[in-house]
Design brief:
With 416 residues, the chain is an alpha/beta fold. It has 15 helices and 14 strands. The strands form three sheets. A six-stranded parallel β-sheet has the order 1-11-10-9-12-13, sandwiched between helices.
């Protein structure tokens, strides 16, 4: 059963996740080196050994994607189109705008927005073929104006390929794991190098992203770990709370579902409901390990203590059943306000991307947005009069640093 921690007498005692971040560097290193040295030959070998590629070509043709779209149900296409519309609409609202104005006479400043030229979207398709991840990664890139979007997915389902067809994806490859990340970061004869790689994956994918971000000068979104949810609810419907916790627990044995409440009675009610729902859950074996070993319910004296721990944990998903607490939230990947807002809505169709930081990285940033696919480039223009006014400050500061040429580059312009 899920552990229940009574912290009413010691509300500031540390609440931490049980599992730690781990990387498989020693296993990933030879894969990266092989792809760097032998390119397609190594990529194909690993794809056949590890992905089960067989005799299939690496690249999925547009005709295959169109055929997959024709095979999936009309209901799936309608659901995907709803999600696409909402994700695109939200990404368009997030898109940064260019700006320029005169801050003082003759001192005109601003910024321009330019998209990356290419990005790679990694879409898991092992135990759970995540067609939603294709939407959540490719759509913000499309809205940002990225011209070349390359998708890697080792065993794409018809649903994943249908979503690719709906988005007009042209570069789609049946490849996964560290070798896929290496190909995207380094380039091979078949897969051209990309500027940034986004999307979640297993520990091998994560290790490869971390290593190649440095070695290949390739941008990444962040290093994703097992998924997590933290719920703050003083009370309510135990069925809803249990369902949201199991929605995370079914992902992975290392997934974490955490509830912070002020009622011991409610804690036990949620625990009992988790057990009841587990009995009929298809992924019960996975969810059971997550619930028993990686999850907890903490009983605290008040909601302010719950907010304290939420900000300290910085969860990937924060389900806040008390919307009035939102102004006090500092750290979270995304927030679901009120009991009518399930985390599943954010996973699929509400609008924000479900590619989110885990392991406390939400202290530093939120989820994937069009900002991850653009550059904000500052622009500066001075009139001669404005430069003349700034010259004393520039030259004094430059010479204080011992950079005489910097000072002279100003003075040569205002001389005479």
């Amino acid at each position: 059963m899920i552990p229940i921690l009574d912290r009413r007498e010691n509300p500031r005692a540390n609440l931490v996740r049980v599992c730690g971040r781990s990387f498989d560097d020693q296993l990933v290193r030879p894969i990266i080196d092989a792809v760097a040295a032998n390119r397609d030959e190594a990529l194909l070998r690993y794809a056949r050994e590890l992905d089960g590629l067989g005799d299939l070509p690496l690249r999925v043709t547009p005709e295959e994607m169109a055929a997959a779209k024709n095979r999936v149900s009309p209901a799936f296409l309608q659901a995907a189109e709803t999600a696409i519309r909402n994700i695109r609409e939200f990404a368009e609202a997030q898109m940064p705008r260019e700006y320029c104005r005169e801050f003082s006479p003759g001192r005109r400043l601003g910024w321009i927005i330019r998209p990356l030229e290419s990005t790679g979207c990694y879409v898991p398709s092992g135990r759970y073929p995540l067609s939603s991840t294709l939407l959540m990664t490719a759509l913000p890139a499309q809205v940002a104006g990225v011209e070349r979007i390359c998708v890697a997915s080792p065993k794409p389902s018809d649903e994943i390929l249908a979503c690719a067809a709906l988005l007009g994806i042209h570069e789609f490859f049946r490849v996964g794991g560290a070798h896929a990340i290496a190909a995207l970061a380094l380039g091979t004869e078949t897969i051209r190098k990309v500027q940034r790689i986004v999307g979640p994956g297993n520990s091998y994918v994560t290790a490869a992203k971390r290593m190649l971000a440095h070695e290949a000068n390739t941008g990444i979104d962040f290093l994703a770990g097992p998924t997590e949810i933290l719920i703050i609810a003083a009370g309510g419907n135990p069925n809803i709370i249990a369902a949201d916790m199991l929605a995370q627990a079914e992902h992975d044995v290392e997934a974490s579902a955490m509830l912070l409440t002020t009622s011991l009675e409610f804690a036990h009610a949620v625990s009992a409901e988790i057990e009841r729902q587990l009995s009929t859950l298809p992924a019960a074996a996975t969810a059971r390990q997550s619930i028993d070993k990686q999850s907890f319910i903490a009983v605290l004296p008040d909601l302010s203590a719950a907010v304290f721990h939420a900000n300290a944990i910085a969860p990937e998903h924060l389900s806040l059943h008390h919307p009035e607490l939102l102004p006090s939230i500092k750290n979270a990947g995304t927030v679901f306000l009120g009991p009518a807002t399930p985390e599943s809505a954010g996973d699929y169709a509400a609008g924000p991307s479900h590619v989110l930081p885990t392991f406390g990285v939400a202290r530093l940033r939120g989820g994937l947005t069009p900002y991850d696919f653009v550059k904000m480039i500052s622009v500066q223009q001075l009139s001669p009069e404005a430069l003349n006014e700034l010259a004393p400050a520039i030259t004094i500061l430059a010479r204080a640093e011992g950079l005489e040429a910097h000072a002279r580059a100003v003075e040569v312009r205002i001389a005479g």
